[in-house]
Write the C-alpha cells for this entry.
Amino acid sequence: MRLSKALGVEIVEFKQRKTSYLSITFFVMLTPWLVHADELTHDVELPRWLERTISDIEKDGTNPFQVAKYDYEGRVVYLIDSRFPCCDLGATIYSTDGAEVCGFIGIVGAWEPSCFDFPTSGKLVEVLYGAPN
C-alpha cells in the first residue's frame, strides 16, 4: 500500500512538474517574439523633419496625437492629428519635405478650401504613430 501511495504522489508530482515545464517552455519560446513585436511592426523609415516633430510633441506631452501616412491626389502626405478626447483641436497635412499642405480648422469644423476633399479622397496608407482612431 505504501508503495502505491508513494507512486501516486510521484505521478502527481510528475504531472505538476510537466505542466510547469510546459509553461516555462512556452514562455521562453514566446518572450523573444513579444519583446520585438513592436519593432517588427513599426520598422518604418520616417523623414527627419517628421521624427523631430514627433519628438517635440512627445516632449510637450499635453495632448495625444496620431501620425498617419496617406495617399492624397497621387502623392504621399503625412497627417498629424490631435487625439484630445474633449475638444476638436484640428489636424495638419504635410508634404514629404515637411511643408504644410493644409489643415483641419478645429473651431470651424472643416478642412481648409485647398483640401476640403481630403476626408473622401485621402487614402490611409498606414498609421505611423499613435493609436488608430
Summary: The chain is about 45% helix and 25% strand. The CA atoms of residues 68 and 128 lie 5 Å apart.
